[in-house]
Amino acid sequence: MGPRRGVSVARLEALYRERYERFARVAAGIAGDSELGRDAVQQAFAIALRQRRSFRGDGSLEGWLWRIVVNEARRLAASRRPLPLADYEQAGNGHVVDEYGLRGWMAALPERQRAVLFLRYHADLRYAQIAELLGIDVGTVSATLSAAHTKLRRALAEAER
Fold first, then answer.
1. 17, exposed or middle or buried, with CB in 10 Å at 0-12, 13-18, 19+?
2. Of 75, 134, 143, 161, which one has the greatest count of Cβ atoms within 10 A?
């Protein structure tokens, strides 16, 4: 008898309830918008439910779900027209979203940098997990994270002048 395939609906529902906020935060960071992030998580879990029998169990169920969430967040981000940086820094009521505009700077990062940043700090994934999830080398994760940090530090230094 071979390895068991598939995952139960109950197990997916439990992970959805347990990890929803974390999935949504990371998806929002990747997509550049909190509403798109929530949409990505909803879509990802709908996909996971439809494809639950394809889960082979070679890796963790959560890793499999992360891959689907990240792919959906990327797909939704690609389908929308990005806002200018100034629009990210201002809330709808004209108030500044955060003191330095950090959310706008993060949203303006290239997609891979944004994804790595959110997967590392919001999903708390290790470099090897991020590399596997995004299909890149561990060294690329490290370099990408370093480049994102550098861009954010430069933006902060400019804002403090």
1. exposed
2. 134
